[in-house]
Design a protein that fits this description.
With about 300 residues, the protein is of the alpha+beta class. It has two domains: about 120 residues, Ribosomal Protein S5, domain 2; about 150 residues, lpxc deacetylase, domain 2 (lpxc deacetylase, domain 1, 2-Layer Sandwich), CATH 3.30.1700. It contains seven helices and 20 strands. A five-stranded mixed beta sheet has the order 2-3-9-4-5, covered by helices on one side. Strands 12-13-19-14-15 form a five-stranded mixed beta sheet, with helices on one face. Strands 6-7-8 form a three-stranded antiparallel beta sheet, with no helix packed on it. A hairpin with a 5-residue loop joins strand 14 and strand 15. Helix 1 packs across helix 5 and helix 5 packs parallel to helix 6. The two termini are about 15 Å apart. It binds zinc ion.
Amino acid sequence: MRQQQTLLNPISCTGVGLHTGKPVTLTLRPAPTDTGVVFVNRNGHAGAMLAASVDHLVPTELCTAISGNGFQVKTIEHVLAALAGLSVDNVFVDIDAAEAPVMDGSSAPFVRLIQSAGVKAQNRRRAFLKITRPLEIVDGSRRIRIEPSSTPRITYTIQYDHPMIRTQTYTYDHSTHAFATEIAEARTFGFLQEVEALWARGLGRGGNLENTVVLSQEGILNESGLRFSDEFVRHKVLDLIGDFSLLGLPFIGHLIADRSGHALHTRLVKQILDHPECWVLLNADQTISQPEFSPSLSSSQRPATAVALQAS
Ligand SMILES: [Zn+2]
């Protein structure tokens, strides 16, 4: 158990959006305790704030997006994964376009930003959501499940009829070191036929071989090769870490995903919040004041949170 954490200093990067292809500047700034991850619009409705919460999720294809307070920001999962992976709880994310920068298609550039900004402990405890009963979503051959565990762990399995993938399974035991060394470098990937179809529909405009592993029929188009032989499943773990951060607080449990994706990831987040009898809060400060930004739990869950607190 630990204290809440934020950045020591603000830090910025620039890039393009994977789907829009538009230039974007993203700045990570220190934020007070209980802020959570809050996006700040630096374009148009300047200054509007939007918590990275499942409450603000919008259905999109191929990425995770949130919308509200007059703006939308999509493809947020890789920067969210870096923040969750390095245990940065409170941060303002200033952004001047409708999509986060894709950078190299992984979380590694955001990890390097956070590491160079520095992380500091704050004077309030970090609450954890500990799973006490399993929850599961099955959708045909795809499924995702969370069950009780003494530590945060993810087991992900993917299956593609491609010679460089076939079946890959990866088990990740969370620590900031493990995230930075095992997961953060894994890049997003796509199949050549699908990439071409995306371009035809006006999506994936910022995608290229500098930020996407592109699979042809027999191999990959990227001349530099893979960063890990199982880079594909590691990237799915990365996406799941980013999507699960929309829960608003770190979980303790074993997430088991089989051929899952963004939609199932976030459906399970919602299901967890809808079933407070399946978890307890650990290490929460006894008096939970109403924070200015309250992304930790959806508004309908706050009474249940209080009950769980008293019970634990
Ligand atoms: Zn991804």
